[in-house]
Amino acid sequence: MVVLSPEDGTRLVKRIVGIPGDTIAMKDNQLLLNGEFATYSQAARDYEPEIAETLRPHAFFAEEDLDGVTHAVMGISIAPETRRDLSPVTVPADRYFLMGDSRDNSHDSRVYGFAERDAILGQAKSILVSLDINDTYLPRLSRFFTPLR
Q1: How far from 80 is each of 22, 114, 127, 133, 149, CA to CA, in Å?
Q2: Which is it for strands 59-66 and 69-76: parallel, antiparallel or unpaired?
Q3: For residue 7, what pLDDT band results from cuts at 50, 70 and 90?
Q4: Domains of the chain
Q5: Angle 132-60-114 (CA atoms, 0-180°, nearest 5)?
Q6: What values do phi and psi take at 59, rounded to 5?
Q7: What pLDDT score was predicted for residue 133?
Q8: Which of 22, 23, 130, 147 could cross-link 140 (Cys pair, CB 3.0–4.6 Å)?
């Protein structure tokens, strides 16, 4: 989803992982939704060419199945362990729990809390422009106008 950050109004692209009434937790970087672990499997393809060269030796990828929706997630082996666990929280009415797919490098609901329904602008469907902000700041032309999943 495209959502306005509760902190400063910046537009963000995040995945909704919890809706009102859901209980969200994380243990060892694995998401629990309503007490059940999300299903993880080996990544369907090699995502390394799409990330910063400096992160490649430390990145690991998996496919996460969250209520029937499968998408890639990334972890970073050198990231602080503090982001990999989350005590259970219940999503209140008219709020949503958001997470980025780069789980160890995402400023999301684990940091700023729940997002209000009014802050959600719409569904992100494709990448318009992509810059390599973790490495060279050069355009990643191969990602321009590509669909999101």
Answers
A1: 26, 22, 29, 20, 27
A2: antiparallel
A3: confident
A4: 2-147 (2.10.109.10)
A5: 75
A6: -90, 145
A7: 66
A8: 130
Q: How far is Cα 106 from Cα 9, in angstroms, rounded to an integer?
A: 16
Task: Report, in this order, helix, strand and coil percent for the chain, each rounded to 5.
Answer: 15, 40, 45
Q: Where are the beta strands (DSSP E) in 34-84?
A: 36-37, 39-42, 59-66, 69-76
3-state class (DSSP) for residue 143: helix
Counted residue by residue, the chain has a size of: 149
User: In DSSP terms, which residues pair with 86 in a beta bridge?
Assistant: 26
Q: How many Cβ atoms sit within 10 Å of the Cβ of residue 37? A: 12
Structure tokens at 44: 């369907």
Structural contact between residues 145 and 128, judged by C-beta atoms closer than 8 angstroms: yes
Query: Does the pLDDT at position 138 exceed 80?
Result: no
Residue 40: strand pairing partners: 64
Give this prediction's pTM: 0.81
Enter the tokens of residue 115: 């997002």
Read off the DSSP letter of residue 27: E
> What phi and psi, each to the nearest 5 degrees, are found at residue 142?
-65, -15
Write down the pLDDT at residue 149.
64
